[in-house]
Amino acid sequence: MIDRIYYEFSGHPGLTCWFGEVLTEKYNSEKRAPITLKNFEIAFAASLFALPNNTILNIISKAKVSPYRNVLLELFQTDKKVPFTYDDFFLNYLYTNGVIDIDKEDLLSYYARFPSPFVQKRLFNYFSRDLFRDLGRLTEPFEKIDHIINDSGIHIKSLMQLYERYLAKNKDWLLKDAPTRKDLRIFEAVYHFNLYMFLHNFLSPYKAQIWPEFPTGNGKIDMIIKYGNQIYGIELKSFTSERAYNEAISQSVQYALQLQVKSIALAFFVDTIDDENRQKYEKTHEYNATGIVVETMFISCGNPYQ
Q1: Which of 105, 119, 213, 243 has the most CB atoms lying inside 10 A of its own CB?
Q2: Which residues contact 50 (CB under 8 A, 6 or more apart)?
Q3: Is residue 303 very low, low, confident or very high in pLDDT (cuts 50, 70, 90)?
Q4: How distant is the alpha carbon of residue 36 from its chain centre?
């Protein structure tokens, strides 16, 4: 419990004390009973979605306006870290207002990062709903989906294929006003926000829970789905090279061990992919030493420009 609280809030005094009050007073009916992780989950969900907090409201107010919004969207990218320098006015402003923090590497290199997983989740939730409040129709009225989700569980690859078809069909209006980088490419994070909202809206009627996880405080993101008694992990990446592809598979094995699951999905966003490369790279990788299975899959975004 203590480790989880420190992990989520990174020791931030104001947020930690606020959540401590939420946990022990507002969402704790049995004052004499030990506080359990179930109590934590209930209080944490309320903190993420239902309770106001002046610190978070102030962070969002700074993060949502231009030009600072684009800096935050860049920070959500998965392929590289954002170097930090105090002389960068935008990074300086976000840092002094508590929106970002500084990460050191080898005592020589400095990078921007989110100050805590909780802050990162609140920002992710805000941008997801701000950009994709309306998703339109997710499936056709008579489309068969029992191969995707049924009483036995969820078939993640089929679910990702459904999303890929949805994105291809609706991207013209869905991404019409999506924020872009200076090179006019849509920010990578925009696709992650859209995928999250799609999965949330699609799975909610089945009483499945979905939430984003950010293990490093940088752009690395995973989607966790809980359905019945099963946990599904989906690690998200952008495909950049075969070397990065192999590194991502190794990272996924470690993350599966951390989640204590036997299989994990590794989904790569890519502009386009032909049948030959899809056949080459979409594989099921089995690791006998650990018993972990990593299933790789690709989501074609189409034209990355507006």
Answers
A1: 119
A2: none
A3: low
A4: 26
The residue type of 133 is R
Q: Tell me which DSSP letter residue 205 carries.
A: G
SS (H, E, C) 66-80: CCHHHHHHHHCCCCC
pLDDT digits (tens, 9 = 90+) for 135-153: 999 998 889 999 999 999 9
237 SS3 class: strand
CA distance 267 to 181: 23
Indicate the pairing of strand 209-213 with strand 153-154: unpaired
Q: Where are the domains of the chain?
A: 2-51, 126-300
**pTM exceeding the 0.85 threshold for the entire prediction:** yes
- Assess whether pLDDT exceeds 60 at residue 305: no
Q: Which residues have a Cβ under 8 Å from the Cβ of 267 and sit 6 or more positions away?
A: 160, 234, 235, 236, 237, 296, 297, 298, 299
On the CB side of 237, how many CA atoms lie within 13 Å of its CA? 23
Among residues 53, 177, 182, the alpha carbon closest in space to that of 123 is found at 53
Tell me the pLDDT tens digit for each residue of 265-300.
999 999 999 999 999 999 999 887 888 999 999 999
Q: Are 68 and 90 in contact (CB under 8 A)?
A: yes
pLDDT in tens, 10-24: 989 999 999 999 999
pLDDT of amino acid 304: 55
Find, among 306, 298, 303, 304, the residue nearest to 163 by Cα: 298
Number of other CB atoms surrounding residue 192 within 10 Å: 23
Is residue 236 a contact partner of residue 221, using CB atoms and an 8 Å limit? yes
Residue 216 is predicted with a pLDDT of 67
Whole-angstrom Cα distance, residue 71 to residue 187? Answer: 10
